[in-house]
Automatic annotation (TrEMBL):
The chain crosses the membrane at residues 1133-1152. One of its GO terms (biological process) is carbohydrate metabolic process. Residues 1093-1127 are annotated as: Disordered. The keyword Transmembrane applies. GO terms for molecular function: alpha-L-fucosidase activity. The keyword Transmembrane helix applies. Coiled coil: none annotated. Residues 1-28 form the signal peptide. Keywords: Membrane, Signal, Transmembrane, Transmembrane helix. InterPro entries: 6-hairpin_glycosidase_sf, 6hp_glycosidase-like_sf, AFCA-like_C, GH95_cat, GH95_N_dom, Glyco_hydro_b. This is Uncharacterized protein. Residues 46-315 form the Glycosyl hydrolase family 95 N-terminal domain. It comes from [Clostridium] methylpentosum DSM 5476. Residues 341-786 form the Glycosyl hydrolase family 95 catalytic domain.
C-alpha cells in the first residue's frame, strides 16, 4: 500500500506540473431550445384511465365564467354536473325589500350616527386603557370556542356589527345525464378521460364491441353554452337517453321534453330567483324521441347536446333583478344549434387558446407517460417519504408545471368579462358549499385574482373590478353602520366590506359573536388587487374613471376613521382583529399594513393623474404615523402592538401574559398540539403589500423569523400564501419545499383532479375540502419565484430553486405592461426578452446584468444606464422588443482536473481501495464525487475546478493510510470473552485492567480507521492483562477459623500471648477483608492465627481443632486449588490452555508483523 501511496503522489504531481502549460479547452455548450418540450400538447393534458366517481377529487372541470361543468365520464351512465354562477339564495326578495346588506344599526339621523360613534370610541378607549388588563379586557373573559365568541370584548364589538339577514350562498344547480343501459361496462376497453388545458376540451374515449366511441365536452364563452359531442368510428352506433335533473329544490319546478329540447324551470325558495336551463339534442342520422322529461337517440352516426342556462339575476342595486331568463336562454340555444358543432368548437378553442397560449413555462421536464392520478400518487409518495414508487425528476417537473398551468386554466374557465368573480369554489361544486361558498375578503377572493396579471390573463381580472364598482355603493352603508361615517346621496365618504360578501353585495362588518367578520380594511385590500391591475396594464382610463375615485373614497374614510392611541402613540384602526387569530385590539398589524399600503397606492395614483394635491399631503401625514411593521423581542414581526415574544404580551407595568386565542386553529392535531396557525395576517406587508422588501433588511429579517416560526405546513390556500411570502424573501429552498408540499399535499394540497383542498380534520389532512384559492395562489407563487416587479424594477429569477435550474418562460408579465421571456441553464440566465406593450422606461435586475448586451428587434444595440453591477435601465418604445443577452463565463481549464480525476477513478476501482481506512474512504469518495460534478458542469468556474482537483489530490495522498490486520486481535478477543464471562471470579485489581483492555481491543476492532500500530498495541495490552489475571482466594477456612476464635475464652492467658493472638487475628481479618488477597496470604493468615492461640489450657477441639498445622488443615482449601480456587498461573487447566494459546497466537502475529516491517 505504501507503493500505492508513492505512486499516487508521483503520478498526480507530475501530471499537474506538465498540464499547467497545456492550452485551455473550450467547453462552452449551446443553449437548448427548451420550447420544444412545451410544444407537445400532451404535456398539458390531464388524463385518467377510469371514470370519476367523486366530483371533488376526480371529476374534470370545464367552464366559461358564466357556468361550470364537472365531467364524470361514465360509460353506461355519464354525468356532467352543472353550476350556474348567479344561482344564489339570499339578498332581497319580492316580499321583503328591507335587505340592508347585513347592516342592522339605524343610520337615518344624526343621533343614530352619533350613537355609533360613541359606541366606537368607547371600545377604542377601553382597548387603549392598560390600567388593569393588557388588552383592555379581562383576559379570562376571552372564550376559546373558535371565532364565534370573544367574551366581554365581543359584547362591545357586537354593537358595531350586523347580522346574517339576507346573507346568501351559491346553490347547487343541475345534472346532465347521458345513459345507455345496453352497454356491458365489463367489456369496455381502452378507456381514457382527459382534459386538454390549452384548448379547454375534455374528452372521453373507449372501445366497446368492436367500436371506438368518443365524447367531447366544452363550455363556450363566445356562445355561452355547454356542448357535448358523441361520435363513433362506425355509423349508426350512437344510442343514448339524456335528461336534466334539478338540484336547486326550487319552487314551481317544471322539467319537460318537447321535440329535441328539454326545458327545466324553477325559482329559488328563499328569494324567488328565476332559473332556467334548456338542453337541445341534435342527432346526425338515426331516430330521436321524447320519453317523459328525457330524450332518446337511437342508431345515430353522431349527436351534439347543447345546454344553455341563466337566471334573472342582475348585478345592480337594489333589487338585483333583470329580465326573465327564458328569452335569453332560448336565443342562445337556438343560435348555437344553428351555428353547428364544428363552428362552436372552433370558436371556443380559438377564444380559450388565445388566452391560454399567451404563456409557456418549462423546467427541463418530460411528458408523463402515466395517468395523472398515478403521477400524483408517486409525487405524494416522494413528499411523504413512505417507501412507495416516486417520480423521476423529469416527471416531478412536469407535474409542477401542470399544476401551475391548471391555475391559469381555472382562471380562464372561471372568470370572464360579464360574469361574476370566482368565489371560494370558483364556479364548481356539488351539494352544499364549504364556508358558504361566498366571497371571503380577508384573503380568499383576493388570492383568486393574484395570478391573473403576471400570468398574462388581464381580461380575466375584469369581473373582479366590475364587482367592486357595484360593491362600493353597498359598502357605504357598512361604513355608516359600523363607524358612523355616512354618505348622503351624491357623497363619497367611505365604503367598507367585511369578511363575507355575496352577489347581493353583503357588506356588513360581520355578524354578531363572530370576530372573523370584523374586517374594516377589507375594501382597502380589495382595491389593492385592482390597483395591481392598473400597475400591470397601465390602463390610465380605468384608473381615472373607475379605480381612483373608489380608492380616494376609502383613503378619505381612513383619514377620518383612524384613532389616535395615546398608549401606542400612533394612529390605529380600532377596534381591530387579525384574521383569524388572537384578541380584539387597537391597531392589529393586519389593518395597519393595509391602511398604510392603501394610502401609498392612492397617493401614487393621485400623482399619476395630477390631482388632489391637498389630500395627498393629508394622507401622507396620517400614513407617517401608522407604524405598520413593528419588530418584537424575538425578532419577529409583531401581530399585535402588545406582543412581546411569540405567544406573549405585556402592557405598561402589567405582568406578561399568554395572548388570548393565540394560534387558534381549525384543524385538530392527532398529537394534541395544534399546528401553527394557517393565517399569516401580520405579514401582509411582505405579500401582497410591498412594505417589507429586500431593500429593507431589518424588516425582511423580522419577516423571516416569523415565517420560520409558523413553519412550512398548512392548509391548501395557506401553503399558497406562504409560497408567495417565501418567494418575496428570495429564499428558493423554502419556496420550493412549499411547491412540493402543495403538489404532493393530498387533502391539504392538490387532489387527483388537481383541485386544491383546504383539508379538514386532524392537521387539515383527514379529508378533502375543495377551495379554489389554493390553485390560484400556487400559480401566483410560481410567478413570484420566477419574476417580481413590485419595487419599481423587474427582478429576473429572484427565487429560482436548484430543481428548476434549467428552463424557460414565455409571456409572463411585469408591472409596466412589459411581457417577459426568459431562458436559463444550469442556474444561470442566458437571455431575457422584453416586449414593451406601453413603451416607457424599463429597469431590470439580475446578477451581472450590467455586463449584458441589449439589442432591439432588428439587432441594433440599445443604450442603457448601469444603475449597479446587477441593475440596468433603458428606454423602450411601444410594442418594441428588446433582448438582454447575459455574458457567459469563459470555460474553465479542466485539463489538470481531468487527469487527476482519471487517476482517482482508477484507484477507487482497485481492490486495494477496500483496505484504506474508513475515514479516508469517505473523504476520498466525497472529493471524487465533487470532482465528477465540477468536471461535468460546463459553467464551473476556474476557482471551483482548481479547488476540486486540489482537494482530490489531497485525498490521493491519504491512500497510504491502510487498515491494520485484525485477524489475530479478533481471535484474542474471542478467547478473552470466555474470561470476561466469569470475570467476577478474579480479583478486581487484575479484572478491572483486563475488562478495560478488552473494551479497548473491541473498539479497535470496530474502528474502520485503525491502522497496524493501533492493532498491535491493542493485542499486546489485552494479552498482558489476560496473563496478569488472578483468581480470588478461597477464604472459607479462614472464615471458619475467625468465627471459632471469637468464641474462645482467653481471660486466663498472659498479656504477651493475648497481644500475639490479637495481632494474628487482626492480620487474619485484614486478609479476609482484602478482595485482592491471594491464596498464599490466606493460608498464611490461617496458620499464623492458629499458631498464636495460647496452649496453657488445651482448647476444646470437639468441633474443629484450631491448633492444626497448615498441612493438617481440612482439604477444603486444597480442593479449591484443584477446582478453580487458585490463580491463573497455578490454577485450573482451561485458563492455562487458553493463555498458552493466546501467547502462541500473538507470538506468531508479532513475528509476521516484524517480517512485514522489513
Amino acid at each position: 500500500m505504501k507503493g500505492l501511496f508513492k505512486k499516487a503522489v508521483g503520478v498526480a504531481l507530475a501530471a499537474a506540473m506538465c498540464l499547467t502549460v497545456l492550452p485551455t479547452a473550450a467547453l462552452t455548450s449551446p443553449v437548448t431550445d427548451l420550447s420544444q418540450s412545451s410544444a407537445n400538447d400532451n404535456l398539458l393534458r390531464i388524463w385518467y384511465d377510469e371514470p370519476a366517481t367523486d366530483w371533488q377529487t376526480e371529476a374534470l372541470a370545464i367552464g366559461n365564467g358564466y357556468m361550470g361543468g364537472m365531467v364524470f365520464g361514465g360509460v353506461k351512465r355519464d354525468k356532467v354536473h352543472i353550476n350556474e354562477k348567479t344561482v344564489w339564495n339570499g339578498g332581497p326578495t319580492e316580499n321583503n325589500n328591507r335587505y340592508n346588506y347585513g347592516n342592522t344599526n339605524p343610520t337615518e339621523t344624526e343621533e343614530d350616527l352619533q350613537k355609533i360613534k360613541d359606541d366606537l370610541n368607547a371600545i377604542r378607549e377601553k382597548l387603549d386603557d392598560k390600567s388593569e388588563f393588557v388588552f383592555g379586557f379581562d383576559e379570562d373573559s376571552y372564550q376559546s370556542s373558535g371565532t364565534s365568541t370573544r367574551g366581554e370584548a365581543m359584547d362591545w364589538l357586537n354593537k358595531l356589527m350586523g347580522d346574517l339577514t339576507g346573507y346568501s350562498a351559491p346553490q347547487d344547480y343541475a345534472d346532465l345525464f347521458i345513459t345507455n343501459n345496453a352497454i356491458d361496462e365489463s367489456a369496455v376497453t381502452n378507456y381514457i378521460r382527459d382534459l386538454d388545458m390549452r384548448t379547454g376540451l375534455a374528452t372521453v374515449s373507449y372501445d366497446y364491441d368492436g367500436v371506438h366511441y368518443t365524447r367531447e365536452y366544452f363550455n363556450s364563452y363566445p356562445d355561452n353554452v355547454l356542448v357535448v359531442r358523441l361520435t363513433a368510428d362506425q355509423g349508426g352506433k350512437i344510442n343514448f337517453n339524456t335528461n336534466l335533473t334539478d338540484k336547486t329544490r326550487g319552487n314551481n319546478l317544471t322539467n319537460t321534453a318537447e321535440g329535441d329540447t328539454i326545458t327545466m324551470k324553477s325559482s329559488l325558495r328563499s328569494n324567488g330567483l328565476k332559473v332556467e336551463a334548456q338542453l337541445k339534442v341534435v342527432p346526425e342520422g338515426g331516430d330521436i324521441s321524447v320519453d317523459g322529461s328525457s330524450i332518446n337517440v337511437a342508431n345515430a352516426d353522431a349527436a351534439t347536446l347543447i345546454l344553455a342556462c341563466g337566471t334573472d339575476y342582475k348585478m345592480e342595486l337594489p333589487t338585483f333583478r333583470g329580465e326573465d331568463p327564458h328569452a335569453a336562454v332560448t336565443g342562445r340555444i337556438s343560435a348555437a344549434a344553428e351555428k353547428g358543432y364544428a363552428d362552436l368548437k372552433e370558436d371556443h378553442v380559438a377564444d380559450h387558446s388565445a388566452l391560454f397560449s399567451r404563456m409557456e413555462i418549462g423546467f427541463n421536464e418530460e411528458i408523463p407517460q402515466i395517468p395523472t392520478d398515478e403521477l400524483i400518487k408517486k409525487y405524494r409518495n416522494m413528499v411523504d417519504n413512505n417507501g412507495g414508487e416516486v417520480p423521476t425528476e423529469a416527471e416531478q417537473r412536469a407535474l409542477e408545471i401542470i399544476c401551475y398551468q391548471f391555475g391559469r386554466y381555472l382562471t380562464i374557465a372561471g372568470s370572464r368579462e360579464g360574469s361574476l368573480p370566482t368565489n371560494l369554489q370558483g364556479v364548481w361544486g356539488e351539494g352544499s358549499f364549504a364556508w358558504g361558498g361566498d366571497y371571503h375578503f380577508n384573503i380568499n377572493v383576493q388570492m383568486n385574482y393574484w395570478p391573473t396579471m403576471a400570468s398574462n390573463l388581464a381580461e380575466c381580472h375584469v369581473p373582479y373590478n366590475d364587482y367592486l364598482n357595484v360593491l362600493r355603493e353597498a359598502g357605504r352603508g357598512a361604513a355608516a353602520a359600523a363607524f358612523g361615517i355616512k354618505s348622503e346621496p351624491g357623497e363619497e365618504n367611505g365604503w367598507l366590506v367585511g369578511c363575507f360578501s355575496t352577489p347581493y353585495m353583503f357588506a356588513t362588518m360581520g355578524q354578531k359573536n363572530n370576530a372573523a367578520g370584523w374586517n374594516p380594511t377589507g375594501s382597502a385590500w380589495a382595491l389593492l388587487n385592482s390597483y395591481e391591475y392598473y400597475l400591470f396594464s397601465g390602463d390610465t382610463e380605468y384608473l381615472k374613471n373607475e379605480l381612483y375615485p373608489s380608492m380616494k373614497e376609502v383613503a378619505n374614510f381612513w383619514n377620518e376613521a383612524l384613532y389616535w392611541s395615546e398608549y401606542q402613540q400612533r394612529y390605529v384602526s380600532g377596534p381591530s382583529y387579525s384574521p383569524e387569530n388572537g384578541p380584539i385590539v387597537n391597531g392589529a398589524s393586519y389593518d395597519q399594513q393595509f391602511i398604510w399600503q392603501h394610502f401609498e397606492n392612492t397617493i401614487q395614483a393621485a400623482e399619476t393623474l395630477g390631482v388632489d394635491e391637498d389630500l395627498v399631503a393629508t394622507w401622507r401625514e396620517k400614513q407617517s404615523k401608522l407604524d405598520p411593521v413593528i419588530v418584537g423581542d424575538d425578532g419577529q414581526v409583531k401581530e399585535w402592538f402588545e406582543e412581546t415574544t411569540f405567544g406573549k404580551a405585556q402592557a405598561g407595568d402589567l405582568e406578561e401574559i399568554d395572548i388570548p386565542q393565540w394560534r387558534q386553529s381549525l384543524g385538530a392535531s392527532t398529537s394534541g398540539q395544534e399546528p401553527p396557525h394557517r393565517h399569516l395576517s401580520h405579514l401582509m406587508a411582505l405579500y401582497p403589500c410591498n412594505i417589507i422588501s429586500k431593500d429593507n433588511p431589518e424588516y425582511m429579517d423580522a419577516a423571516m423569523v416569523t415565517l420560520n416560526e409558523r413553519g412550512l405546513d398548512a392548509t391548501g390556500w395557506s401553503k399558497a400564501h406562504k409560497l408567495n411570502l417565501w418567494a418575496r424573501t428570495g429564499h428558493s429552498d423554502e419556496a420550493f419545499q412549499i411547491v412540493q408540499s402543495a403538489v404532493g399535499g393530498g387533502n391539504s394540497g392538490f387532489l387527483t383532479n388537481l383541485f386544491s383542498s383546504h383539508g379538514g380534520g386532524a392537521n387539515y389532512k383527514a379529508y378533502p375540502i375543495f377551495q379554489i384559492d389554493g390553485n390560484y395562489g400556487y400559480t401566483a407563487g410560481v410567478n413570484e419565484m420566477l419574476l417580481q416587479s413590485q419595487l419599481g424594477y423587474v427582478q429576473f429569477l429572484p427565487a429560482l430553486p436548484e430543481e428548476w435550474n434549467t428552463g424557460f418562460v414565455k409571456g409572463m408579465v411585469a408591472r409596466g405592461n412589459f411581457e417577459i421571456d426568459m431562458d436559463w441553464a444550469d442556474g444561470t440566465a442566458n437571455t431575457f426578452t422584453v416586449t414593451s406593450r406601453n413603451g416607457g422606461e424599463f429597469s431590470g435586475e439580475y446578477k451581472g446584468i450590467a455586463n449584458a448586451t441589449i439589442t432591439d428587434a432588428e439587432g441594433n444595440p440599445v443604450e442603457f444606464t448601469k444603475n449597479s453591477d446587477d441593475r440596468v435601465t433603458f428606454n423602450t418604445e411601444k410594442d418594441g422588443v428588446y433582448t438582454i443577452t447575459l455574458p457567459q463565463p469563459e470555460p474553465a481549464n479542466k485539463a489538470i482536473l481531468s487527469t487527476v480525476l482519471a487517476y482517482a477513478e482508477a484507484q477507487y476501482a482497485s481492490d486495494e481501495f477496500a483496505n484504506v481506512i474508513d475515514s479516508v474512504q469517505q473523504s476520498f469518495t466525497a472529493a471524487l464525487e465533487n470532482a465528477r460534478v465540477v468536471n461535468a458542469d460546463p459553467k464551473a468556474s476556474q476557482e471551483a475546478v482548481d479547488a476540486a482537483w486540489q482537494t482530490l489530490m489531497t485525498e490521493i495522498h491519504k491512500l497510504g493510510f491502510v487498515r491494520g490486520d485484525k485477524s489475530t486481535l479478533a481471535q484474542l478477543v474471542e478467547i478473552s470473552n470466555s474470561y470476561n464471562d466469569n470475570i467476577d471470579r478474579y480479583t478486581p485489581a487484575t479484572a478491572d485492567p483486563f475488562v478495560a483492555a478488552l473494551a479497548s481491543a473491541k473498539a479497535v476492532l470496530d474502528d474502520g480507521d485503525a491502522m497496524q500500530d493501533d492493532v498491535a498495541a491493542a493485542e499486546s495490552a489485552l494479552l498482558d492483562a489476560m496473563m496478569n489475571l488472578r483468581f480470588k482466594a478461597d477464604k472459607s477456612v479462614l472464615e471458619a477459623v475467625l468465627a471459632q476464635v471469637n468464641d474462645l475464652d482467653l481471660s486466663a492467658y498472659s498479656e504477651a500471648d493475648l497481644a500475639a493472638f490479637n495481632a494474628a487475628k487482626a492480620a487474619a481479618e485484614a486478609v479476609y477483608n482484602d478482595v485482592n488477597a491471594e491464596q498464599d496470604a490466606v493460608d498464611k493468615a490461617i496458620a499464623d492465627l492458629q499458631a498464636a492461640i495460647p496452649t496453657e489450657e488445651p482448647a476444646d477441639t470437639t468441633d474443629t481443632d484450631l491448633t492444626q498445622t497448615d498441612t493438617e488443615t481440612p482439604t477444603q482449601g486444597d480442593a479449591a486449588l484443584t477446582t478453580g480456587g487458585g490463580n491463573a498461573k497455578t490454577g485450573e487447566a482451561t485458563p492455562i490452555a487458553l493463555a498458552v494459546a493466546a501467547v502462541s497466537l500473538v507470538g506468531a502475529a508479532l513475528f509476521i508483523s516484524k517480517k512485514r516491517s522489513r
